[in-house]
């Protein structure tokens, strides 16, 4: 029996102002479906940083899934902070999507634009990220509170909400009680890795839907062919004859004004600096072997803007002269669409960051991920979509293991591409299944 939004409101005792919540551990009812307006509206909260093409890539990826599988809905994209570069990608590739702007602290201080957007919304989706953690990188409450407060606002008004393709890593006490209370009210929690899913189950989370769904970035298909092809020509990179290398170091963001965090320390410790030197030595070993074995080039590509000088200092400048002739250093930052056009012409990708590799897989390219456990559980998603052989621990595994895997990919490239395509077939199946669940939540019939 379908449940109306008005009926749901009658059962709701929560308000943002009073926070009068039911007892902990209660199974919280969520409207799985209701009689929608003629055109349901879904609001996607996304676009975490412009200076990270992975954070850019979540947005067009999930928007494409929503457009493809739920074309009947009106889509709103919520940018809590200014994101001019991501907005360019959206306006160029998703002309029907309306962008709404404004931060959210309490229900009483919403801008008129944001309040009107919530009044129109039939489902709020928080896109892929690591927003719902406490104690992973720091013990600041501001980020988690800003992520959770809109859910209370939605719950108070009978608006279903959910989280798509998220990693959950740590709820330091007593935060688990707060996270559990509101997230148990969600229409869905889709975790992008099975480690996160098992973590939530162990912490007794039980929303209406608790399942695996790939990171939203897997849906990306946008390109900037004009810029991408021009760059390939200028850099002397030939189609199918270069390896993309992506690094991540223990260094601060550009223009960092605060104390940073474990992932981006403002003042790296001697131990963190030594860790970078060790990791980059392994990457140099991979680059040198690749050039000598294949004769192909290497592109040092940035997923995050801060890594361009690090790639120069730790990699490019320290290679021997012969190898360096085959290496291209990208020293200007780019947006996700240009990166996609370049990655589409790569042979393969290897990286410490996951989202360039996701883009590569979406383009049918073999990838090798050398993950750091400091980055949380998200790296396990490559194992969980069927690619355990292409996943390594950056500190625990030797460079020779990465080299062996790249050599296997190169020696039987058709088989490696077929492996990537099989993984993407699994991803696309889960994307379709999760989007069918979203259709039901906004009152639309399945398309199957």
UniProtKB/TrEMBL annotation:
Residues annotated as domain Polysaccharide pyruvyl transferase: 52-371
Keyword Transmembrane helix attributed: no
Tell me which domain of life the UniProt entry assigns to the organism this sequence originates from. Bacteria
PROSITE patterns (UniProt xref): TAT (PS51318)
Write down a Pfam family by its short name. PS_pyruv_trans
InterPro entries (UniProt xref): Polysacch_pyruvyl_Trfase, TAT_signal, TAT_signal_bac_arc
* Alphabetical UniProt keywords: Transferase
Region feature (Disordered): 256-277
| Listed transmembrane segments | none
Q: Which GO terms describe its molecular function?
A: transferase activity
Comp. bias (Polar residues)? 263-273
Q: Which NCBIfam families match?
A: TAT_signal_seq
Q: What is this protein's record name?
A: Polysaccharide pyruvyl transferase family protein
Q: Which organism is it from?
A: Larkinella humicola
């Amino acid at each position: 029996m379908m449940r109306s939004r008005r009926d749901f409101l009658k059962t709701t005792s929560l308000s943002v102002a009073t926070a009068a919540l039911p007892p902990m551990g209660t199974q919280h009812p969520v409207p799985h479906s209701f009689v929608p307006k003629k055109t349901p509206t879904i609001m996607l909260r996304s676009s975490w940083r412009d200076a990270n093409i992975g954070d850019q890539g979540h947005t067009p990826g999930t928007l494409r899934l929503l457009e493809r599988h739920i074309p009947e809905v009106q889509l709103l994209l919520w940018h809590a902070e200014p994101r001019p570069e991501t907005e360019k990608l959206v306006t160029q590739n998703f002309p029907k999507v309306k962008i709404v702007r404004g931060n959210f602290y309490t229900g009483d201080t919403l801008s008129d634009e944001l309040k009107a957007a919530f009044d129109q919304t039939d489902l709020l989706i928080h896109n892929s990220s690591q927003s719902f953690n406490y104690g992973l990188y720091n013990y600041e409450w501001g980020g988690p509170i800003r992520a959770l407060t809109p859910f209370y606002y939605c719950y108070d008004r009978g608006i279903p909400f959910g989280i798509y393709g998220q990693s959950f890593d740590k709820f330091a006490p007593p935060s688990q009680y707060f996270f559990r209370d509101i997230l148990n009210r969600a229409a869905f929690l889709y975790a992008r890795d099975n480690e996160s899913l098992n973590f939530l189950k162990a912490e007794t989370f039980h929303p209406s839907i608790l399942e695996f769904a790939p990171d939203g970035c897997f849906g990306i298909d946008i390109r900037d062919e004009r810029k991408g092809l021009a760059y390939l020509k200028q850099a002397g990179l030939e189609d199918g004859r270069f390896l993309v290398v992506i690094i991540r170091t223990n260094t601060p963001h550009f223009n960092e004004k605060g104390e940073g965090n474990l992932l981006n320390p403002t003042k790296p410790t001697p131990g963190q600096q030594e860790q970078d030197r060790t990791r980059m030595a392994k990457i140099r070993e991979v680059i040198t072997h690749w050039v000598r074995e294949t004769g192909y080039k290497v592109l040092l590509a940035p997923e995050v803007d801060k890594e361009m000088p690090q790639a120069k200092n730790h990699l490019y400048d320290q290679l021997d002269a012969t190898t360096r002739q085959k290496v291209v250093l990208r020293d200007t930052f780019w947006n996700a669409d240009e990166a996609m056009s370049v990655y589409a012409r790569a042979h393969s990708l290897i990286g410490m960051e996951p989202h360039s590799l996701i883009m590569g897989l979406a383009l049918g390219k073999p990838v090798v991920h050398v993950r750091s456990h400091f980055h949380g559980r998200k790296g396990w998603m490559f194992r969980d979509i069927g690619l355990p052989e292409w996943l390594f621990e950056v500190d625990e595994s030797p460079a020779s293991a990465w080299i062996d895997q790249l050599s296997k990919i190169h020696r039987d490239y058709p088989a490696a591409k077929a492996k990537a395509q099989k993984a993407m077939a699994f991803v696309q199946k889960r994307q379709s299944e999760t989007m069918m669940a979203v259709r039901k939540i906004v009152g639309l019939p399945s398309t199957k």
